Amino acid sequence: MADEYPMYALSEEHQAIREAVRAVCDAKVAPYATDVDENARYPQEAADALQAADFHAPHVPEEYGGAGADALATVIVIEEVARACVSSSLIPAVNKLGSLPVQISGSEELKKKYLSKLAAGEGGFSYCLSEPDAGSDAVSMKTKAVRDGDHWVLNGVKRWITNAGVSEFYTVMAVSDPEARSKGISAFVVEKSDEGVSFGAPEKKLGIKGSPTREVYLDNVRIPADRMIGPAGTGFETAMKTLDHTRVTIAAQAVGVAQGALDYALGYAQERQQFGKPIADFQGLQFLLADMGMKVEAARQMTYAAAGRSERGDKDLTFFGAAAKCFASDVAMEVTTNAVQVLGGYGYTRDYPVERMMRDAKITQIYEGTNQVQRIVMARQLLAGIQSRL
Ligand SMILES: Cc1cc2nc3c(=O)[nH]c(=O)nc-3n(C[C@H](O)[C@H](O)[C@H](O)COP(=O)(O)OP(=O)(O)OC[C@H]3O[C@@H](n4cnc5c(N)ncnc54)[C@H](O)[C@@H]3O)c2cc1C
C-alpha cells in the first residue's frame, strides 16, 4: 500500500536503506509485534534481526566500527521499524539517545571504548535524566556525584529509564555541584556491572509494552573519574544538546506508527463492505483518509527537514527538533485514533493492530519532553529570533 505513495526526494542511498529496513521489518519485526504487545515482552527477534543487519545503532560513526548512518538515514531506520512495531523502534532510538552524550562531549578514550562496544553489539546504551520528582523540571534532579580521589561516587534514583536492565551502558546525569544548578550537573558513563547498580520492576504501561521501562538505583556506585563525559558541570548542557538531535528520532517513531496505521486503514477500507460496497467508496470516509495521508506527509517532511538540521548541526535545530517531535506526535495520535475509527468496532479490538498503534503513539507526545515542554522550547527559540527565516 505504501508503494502507492509518492516517492520522496531521497537519495538512492537513503531509498535503499528504507527498502532494506522494510525487508527486515516485514520478515522479523512485524510478525512478532502483536505477541510482544500482548505479553509485554522484550522484542528479542527484532533486537537480533536489527543487530544482524547493523540497524541496532546505525548512527555510530564508521571510525568506531559503526554503520555511520547520517541523521536522515537513522530517522528512516527508526521510522520503518516503528511502522511495524514501536517497541522495537526504541532499540535504535534509545541506543542513539544513550550514546550521543559520549559522541557529542566525551573524550576520545570514552568514544573508542563505548561507541565501539555499542556498534559491535556488545551492549545497548540507556539515557538517565528523569527522576521521580524531576521530570519536565529535570534541573531539580537529586542524584549526586561526589568526587573521591580518582573516582566519583554516585547515589540516587533515576526513573522511567528505557531499556534499563537490558542495556549494558548508562549515561547518568548527576549533581556534582549543588550550588550551581544546571551548571552543577555532570554526565557519567555507568555500566550495568558496576557495583551498586540495580533496577526496579518493569513499569506496567498503556503502550510500547515491549520496551522495558524501569527505575535505575545507584547505591554508592564508585566509578573511575575518566568515565565523566566532558568537563564537570557540562552534563546538563550535553543532555539538552542530545535531546535536540534525538527529538527528531521521536518524530520518526511518530511518522512510522502513523504510516503503519494509515496503511492498515487503507487496506481495510477497500475490503470491508457495507451498504453493498466497500466503505472506501463513501466520500465521508475518503475525506478522513485524505486528511490522514496529508498529515502523515506533512509530519514526515518536517521530520526530514529537522534531520537535515541535525546532520549539519544548524543553529535552528533546537526549534526544528522540538517542532518536528511535537507536530509529528500530535499527528500520530490523531491518525492512529482515526485508523481505529475506519475499522469501526473491529478497530477497537485486539484482533486488529490499530488499537496497539493508537496506544503506542501516545508515548511520543510524552517522552523526551512532553509536548507542552516542546512548545516552551519553541517559543523561547522564536522569541530569541533563532528560528530560520525565509
Ligand atoms: C515509557 C517512558 C519511557 C521514558 N524513557 C526515558 C528515558 O529513557 N530516560 C529518561 O531520562 N526519561 C525517560 N522518560 C521520562 C519522560 O521524559 C518524562 O516522563 C517526561 O519528561 C515528563 O516528566 P514527568 O513524567 O515527570 O511529568 P511532569 O513533569 O510531572 O509533567 C506532568 C504534566 O505537567 C505538564 N507540565 C510540566 N511542566 C510544565 C510547564 N512548565 N508548563 C506547562 N506544562 C507543564 C507536562 O507537560 C505534563 O502534562 C520516559 C517516560 C516514559 C513514560
TrEMBL record:
GO molecular function, one term: flavin adenine dinucleotide binding
Domain Acyl-CoA dehydrogenase/oxidase N-terminal stretches: 11-122
All copies of domain Acyl-CoA oxidase/dehydrogenase middle, residue ranges: 127-221
Residues covered by the Acyl-CoA dehydrogenase/oxidase C-terminal domain: 233-383
InterPro entries: Acyl-CoA_DH_CS, Acyl-CoA_Oxase/DH_mid-dom, Acyl-CoA_Oxase/DH_mid-dom_sf, AcylCo_DH-like_C, AcylCo_DH/oxidase_C, AcylCoA_DH/ox_N, AcylCoA_DH/ox_N_sf, AcylCoA_DH/oxidase_NM_dom_sf
Keywords noted in UniProt: FAD, Flavoprotein, Oxidoreductase
Signal peptide: none
The reaction(s) this protein catalyses: a 2,3-saturated acyl-CoA + A = a 2,3-dehydroacyl-CoA + AH2
Coiled coil: none
Protein name: Probable acyl-CoA dehydrogenase fadE25
Organism name: Nocardioides guangzhouensis
